[in-house]
Amino acid sequence: MFGAFRPSQTALRGLLWLRLKAVDNVIAKVQASGVQTLSLVRYPPSLLAPEMPARDKYTVFSRYGRNYRMGIHKVPHWTKVTSRVNPKGF
């Protein structure tokens, strides 16, 4: 969207928070139903949105970025891939 109604970074950050909360709810419901999938087996159970530090919610590891971090909004298809697990030390 362009013009006066263009979303700001603050508004987009709020949308990310709601999306993380919705993803956590869906994963909890699927696990409670007893369905076993490979993606659920690989999903780390301790990484819920309220337990994650803000640095990991809004940035991801990047070997080319300054301080090895870049904003999550710069990741292609960031709404479709999990970015909750970073390399050790980052």
UniProtKB/TrEMBL annotation:
Any one GO MF annotation of this record: structural constituent of ribosome
Pfam family, one: L31
Keyword Ribonucleoprotein on entry: yes
Keyword line: Ribonucleoprotein, Ribosomal protein
One term under GO cellular component: mitochondrial large ribosomal subunit
Keyword hit for Translocase: no
PANTHER family recorded: 54S RIBOSOMAL PROTEIN L31, MITOCHONDRIAL (PTHR28271), LARGE RIBOSOMAL SUBUNIT PROTEIN ML60 (PTHR28271:SF1)
Protein name per Swiss-Prot or TrEMBL: Ribosomal protein L31, mitochondrial
